[in-house]
Amino acid sequence: MSAPRLALALGMLATAVACRGPQPARPEGSCTHVQAVRELQGAALCEDVWSCVRPPGGAFDRVGLHRLARCEGADGPVVLYLPGMHMNGELPIADPRHDLRVYLAGAGLRTWGLDYRTHAIPPTASGADLEVMRRWTADVFVDDAAWAAAFVRGADAAPLYLAGFSQGAAFAYRLAVRRDQGIAGVLVLDGAAAGGRAREGGGPAIDVGGSRLPFATRERLLTDVIADPARPSSVPGFASAGAALADLLYSAPSFGGTGGLANARDGVSDVRILATLLKSYDRWWPRASLDTSPPDRPGQPLRVLAFTSTNMGPAWLERVRESARTYGGDGAVVRELPRYGHLDVLVGRRAAQEVFEPARAWLAGR
Questions:
Q1: Does residue 109 sit in the same domain as residue 10?
Q2: Sequence-distant (≥ 6) Cβ neighbours of residue 330 within 8 angstroms
Q3: Distances (CA, A) of 54 to 47, 134, 156, 159, 353
Q4: Triad 151, 152, 158: Cα angle to 5°
Q5: Of 40, 48, 101, 249, which shows the fewest CB atoms inside 10 Å?
Q6: What tens digit of pLDDT does each residue of 95-104 get?
């Protein structure tokens, strides 16, 4: 848990003394808790953060929970957000135009975000430290999400919705079909139900850096873009740091190479906002979590709203549609986002109008 980052989001007004946060009857597990009061467009928001030990209780067997809601009058639906690979539940972006949970909290909903166990592993972890990831399968992540859902219910008595981005959507589908969960619905942000085999070779951990942009180079580029996108590029061949990041994201081969990861090059997202999001990523992700069997089918259709980017191509669109239909039946709603890449669904210039507000209305039953 990197609690000091809390001071960067939303502008701290006071500490726990002034914030009357929830006191959940939480499931078994040792937790620490910090609180803060924030301001958003004149309204006070309370943010509560817990860091909790999970079985078997090793050095990195910890998860975090972030609750953000109005300090007074928050009585809307409850949403538990499951992030994607390398991501966590922190709130690096304060602007409700570029963060779903901030937007929803400002509208009166109670929002929660989960830090996976990966958030506890430092970027400088040794090879011996990373061996723990060999046992971090998809089932471990979904079990942690189930524990988090029980924690959330102990704090906020209301129908519970799951929201998941990318890999987090796959976890959300797996959790929602468990018979004892009673999930009210699933909000899918550019994700699909997953099942497959991890690639052969490699160690237990996947590095967020890669051959095109090793971790140290990635960190320097993101830092430069956040400071000023017009800075000279530390990556050869580009006129500025912002141009370098925009092109590297646009051309990412594993996302199709034509704006599939993010489309800042065509102005769909702001490159500085993208850099802020990417800088918050955790370095390591367990390879074992990608080795999964197809998830169970639901006993009865779930309420599903799915948003999908289009820049990864028709095969990706069909995967998102098929997952939504499988779990939501004929009532599932799928909204396509033309010219969007994967990350644009979270932080695009028009995400508030085209994703966040439709999601809020759906959650409110309108």
A1: yes
A2: 301
A3: 22, 16, 21, 25, 38
A4: 140
A5: 40
A6: 999 999 999 9
Residue 264: CB partners within 8 Å, gap ≥ 6?
245, 246, 249, 250, 270, 271, 274
Are 13 and 120 contained in the same domain?
yes
328, pLDDT greater than 70: yes
Among candidates 345, 343, 223, which has minimal Cα distance to 276? 223
pLDDT tens for 107-118 read: 999 999 999 999
Q: What is the mean pLDDT of residues 17-25?
A: 49
Q: Tell me what percent of the residues of the chain surpass a pLDDT of 70.
A: 90
DSSP character string of 37-106: EEEETTEEEEEEEEEEE-TT--TT-EEEEEEEEESS---S-EEEEE--TT--S------TTS-HHHHHHH
pLDDT at 292: 84
Tokens representing 128 are 């011996």
Domain boundary among 227, 260, 281: 281
